[in-house]
Specification:
Elements: E1 8-12, H1 13-30, E2 37-42, H2 43-60, E3 66-71, E4 78-79, E5 89-97, H3 101-113, E6 118-126, E7 138-142, E8 149-155, E9 161-168
Parallel strand pairs: 2-3, 2-5, 5-6, 6-7
Antiparallel strand pairs: 1-9, 3-4, 8-9
Helix pairs in contact: 1-2
Length: about 170
Amino acid sequence: MSESNTPIQLMSAQHMLRTLNRFSRQIIEDNTNEHPIVLVGIDERGGYLAGILANILDREISASIKWTRLDVKHQSGKFSRDVHIDDSFLIVIDDVIFSGKTMFTAFRTILERGTPGMIKLAALIDRGHRQYPLYAQYIGSYSPTKLGEHVECRFTKDGKPQKVELLHTD
């Protein structure tokens, strides 16, 4: 592998967990109307993040945190488990936000199911290059990338964080 193709580590597992802990504190502070908190993780990696964040929030506050995974990659628009989203403080979570198309697709699916009281976005990595007018309120790291680069969030088979890497694809 040439030097230019060597992955660059953007986050370690510990950094990923510290970021999710920070997100939990920010979410608690931002939920001023004390709506029920619902986390929606986009696809597999966003689902892992939503589950981890739900566990962190469960330890921090006395309310039960609901979370689900939303499959948008295969256009199924299905939640992995039923959650009541009306009048909720809903956080849409993805590992990486890039153009915003995936988040926009998730919004359409969510709004077909109900009306949250508030929606906010979270992502471990914001790559920039937005094509849709979306802004993530909770960001682990802003890492503007070139179009020939790819950011990969890695998890173990049982959904534990491993690392986030920047890969050169050209």
